[in-house]
Design goal:
Elements lengths: L4 H25 L5 H14 L4 E7 L2 E2 L2 E2 L4 E7 L12
Antiparallel strand pairs: 1-4, 2-3
Helix pairs in contact: 1-2
């Protein structure tokens, strides 16, 4: 049972906007390019859509109370949306 329907709807809208940007990048650039070209294109669309993010966000993992030595990173960490509903779509 969904106890926070507003939060769920905001999450769905955010995921829809991000996935739309990813699909637009692939649709416009096509396959077989370097990963960094796709990242830069996605960064351009996220900026255009005013979706806040951090690029190459590093973080550590703790397992059984002990930190794993290898640090991991994600290409993009999308932040909390500034406005309640931006309505932006790629």
């Amino acid at each position: 049972m969904d106890t926070k329907p507003e939060l769920a709807m905001q999450l769905k809208q955010r995921c829809y906007a991000i996935n739309g940007c990813c699909a637009a990048v692939h649709r416009e650039l096509g396959p077989f390019l370097n990963e960094y070209m796709y990242q830069e294109a996605l960064q351009i669309l996220l900026d255009e859509q005013q979706i806040p993010y951090q690029r190459e966000y590093y973080f550590s993992v703790v397992f059984h109370g002990r930190p794993i030595q290898h640090k991991h990173f994600v290409d993009f960490l999308v932040e909390k949306e500034q406005a309640s509903d931006s309505g932006n779509r790629c």
